Amino acid sequence: MKITAFAPISMGNVSVGFDILGAAFAPIDETNPPLGDRVTVSACEAGAASGGAASGANVSGTGAPDTLTVGGPFAHILPEDHAQNLALIAAGYFRAALEAKGGGCAPMALHLEKNLPIGSGLGSSASTVVAALAAMNEFAGRPFTPDELVVVMGRAEGHVSGGVHLDNVAGSYLGGLRLLPADGRDGGIALPGADHWYWALAYPGTTMLTKEGRAVLPKTVPFHTAIEAAGHLASFVSACYRGDDEFAWEHLVDLLAEPYRARLLPGFAEAKAALPALGAKAVGISGSGPTIFAISDTRAGADKLADYMREHYLKNENGFCHLCKLQNEGAIITKS
Predict the structure, then answer these.
(1) Where are the domains of the chain?
(2) pLDDT, position 32
(3) Which of 14, 23, 69, 154 has the fewest CB atoms within 10 Å, measured from its CB?
(4) What's the pTM?
C-alpha cells in the first residue's frame, strides 16, 4: 500500500494577520508542475535503511530507519544530504510525537516530488512538511487528529523557518483562509466570505528565505502601531463573517512586517502603487516574500493585474504569475 499526499501552496500572514492568518490556494487553470509538493509513503523494504538514503532526523533519539528518494523539477536544489531534507526531518518529529503517545510505526520509505521553489513565499517548506506528515499519519493508521498533526507540522516546519508558526502549515493542510490561535495549539478556524476572490500571485524567480525575512523585523513596535494592527485584523475578520468585501479589502493592511520587508523586494513598491489604479482591491507580500499578491473581484480584473506583474515584477525565467482562488480542501490524500 502506498499513500500519497499533495499539499497546496499557502500564504502566511495574508498582510493583516502576522503569523496567525494563513491561506491555501489552487490555480484556476492547469499548471505544470502543480502548485504544491507531493510525498508518497510506503513500507520500507528490509535492509533499505542501510543503503544510500540517510535515516530520518533523530529528534527523538531513536534514529528512525526511514529512507528518502527525491524527484520533481526542484529536486536539484534540495540538500544532497538527505538527513537535512524536510521530509525526513518531518519523519523524525512524527516518530517523536508517536513515542510521546506510547506508539510506534514501521520503517517508512518516502518519495518527495518537489514542485515548489525554495524561498518563494508560497509555503514551499510547509508544503513538503504537510505532504510528508499527512501521508505518514495515514500510513500509520491516523494516530493524530488534524489539530494534533498541525502542531507536529508546525514544529517540523519551524526547524528551518526560525520559529514555530502555523499559518502556512494549517492553511496547506486544512485549506481555506484560516485564523490561528496565538498559542499555536490547533488548526484554528476557517474564515468565510473570500471564496469568490481572485488572487494574482507573482513569484519573481528570486529567493527570500523565511529566516532572512524575519531578521529585518523589529523586536518591538510602538504601542499605537500594535493597537492599529489589532484593529485592522478585527475589522477584517468581522468583514469576512458579514460578507462585506470592500470593508475586508480596506483592512488588509500590514503594519508589522511589510514596512520593513518592502525594501528587500525590488519592484514591490512600484507594484503597490500601480496595481490599485488597475483595479486591485488589495496588494501585499505573501509570507516573507518575494511572492506578492493582488486581489480582484473578477476574472477579467485579475488578468489585468497578472499582466502588469508579469511585465514589471518577474525578474527572470524562473518567475511566474498564476491566478488562484482559495483551496478549501487542503491536503489531498490518495492510496494505491
Answers:
(1) 3-191+328-335, 198-325
(2) 84
(3) 69
(4) 0.93
Is 198-325 in the same CATH topology as 3-191+328-335? no
Please tell me whether the peptide bond between 290 and the residue prior to it is cis, using omega within 30 degrees of 0.
yes
- What pLDDT sits at residue 46? 58
Which residue, 85, 76, 15, 34, is CA-closest to 331?
Answer: 34
The third-level CATH classification (topology) of the domain covering 3-191+328-335 is Ribosomal Protein S5; domain 2 (3.30.230)
| Per-residue pLDDT at 210 | 79
Query: Which parts of the chain have pLDDT scores under 50?
Result: 49-64
